[in-house]
Amino acid sequence: MTEHAAQQPTLQPMPTDWQRALAVVAHPDDLEYGCAAAIAAWTDGGREVAYVLATRGEAGIDGVAPDECGPLREAEQRASAAVVGVSSVEFLDHRDGVVEYGPGLRRDIAAAIRRHRPELVITLNHRDTWGGGDGGGYWNTPDHKAVGRAVLDAAGDAGNRWIFPELIAEQGLEPWNGVRWVAVAGTSTPTHAVEAGPGLERAVRSLLEHKAYITALTDQDPEEYVRDFLTGNVQQVAARFGGRPAVAFEVFPR
Fold first, then answer.
1. How far is CA 13 from each of CA 195, 242, 247, rounded to the nearest angstrom?
2. Is residue 133 scored above 90 in pLDDT?
3. CA distance 56 to 90
4. I need a labelling partner for 134 at 20 to 30 A (CA). Which of 58, 84, 117, 197 fits?
5. How far apart are CA 33 and CA 3, in angstroms?
6. How many CA atoms are closer than 13 Å to the CA of 220, on its beta-carbon side?
7. Residue 198 main-chain phi, psi, to 5 deg
């Protein structure tokens, strides 16, 4: 254990008294890089998890035009979700790379929350940087920031009938006040964790389903790249979770 890790607070186990979760992120592969091992463990335990993606990731591969890339990445995402026991995958069709935080995005996510009625909502790092808990870090993308922030807000919007009343009038979506937590993956300030061991191998296979994206991203052997990345992430969390490799989340109670 490093001196820095020893000085950080111990991470608490994630709440387990829930049945339905909804994961809302910007792109195909966001959940596979962020928390698929936890999702595999949850579905293995009989919990229901659904995915909602703001975009189809159509701007994600430099050598593939968006009209070809979008369907390709959608198919990879559906296959990837199936590996960890998720069959419900929806796309909101916001434009990849230029997702804007605002009422439209909040409304679309609030509608998804009302449709799925989750107790737990999961998203990805909404802050300006990746890492950098002590300063610095890598700059986050506009899509991640916009979607993550909108998810945190939409969890409240979903329960208020006077915000986006058209969801009732036009779609018959009554308010849902049942969201108890929003859990943010990929954060530099985690509070909770889920043991990764039971779901790690399936998380590796899940990320490997994004074949076209990974092949374009790295010259490294895909399985070696994926295994090194995911194993390194969960081992880094272990120092704060009783020595157990884990997926970390920042949990916001509601």
1. 8, 11, 10
2. no
3. 10
4. 197
5. 27
6. 12
7. -60, -30
The Cα 124–Cα 152 span in angstroms is 10
Instruction: Tell me the two tokens of residue 157.
Output: 């919007």
Strand partners, 181: 120, 253
Give the span between the Cα atoms of 37 and 197, in whole angstroms: 8
* Tokens representing residue 118 in the block: 């989750």
Cβ atoms of 177 and 157 closer than 8 Å: no
Q: Which residue has the tokens 């990849």?
A: 96
Phi/psi-derived region of residue 107, left when phi > 0, alpha when psi is between -120 and 50, beta in every other case: alpha
Average of per-residue pLDDT across 148-171: 98
d(CA 156, CA 150): 10
DSSP states of 47-87: -EEEEEES---TTS-TTS-HHHHHHHHHHHHHHHHHHTT--
Res 137: pLDDT: 84
Strands (E), 36-104: 48-53, 89-91
Q: Which of 36, 149, 144, 25 is nearest to 91 (CA)?
A: 25
DSSP designation for 15: P
> CA angle at residue 17 from 22 to 157, to 5 degrees?
40
Provide the 10 A C-beta neighbour count for residue 6: 9
Is the pLDDT at 32 greater than 60? The verdict is yes
How far apart are the C-alpha atoms of 232 and 43, rounded to whole Å? Answer: 23
Computed over its alpha carbons, how large is the radius of gyration of the chain?
Answer: 18
Residues for the chain: how many in total? 254
pLDDT-derived band at 198 (thresholds 50, 70, 90) equals confident
- Separation between Cα atoms, residue 252 and residue 254, nearest integer Å: 7
Phi-psi region of 216 (alpha: psi -120 to 50; beta: other; left: phi over 0): alpha
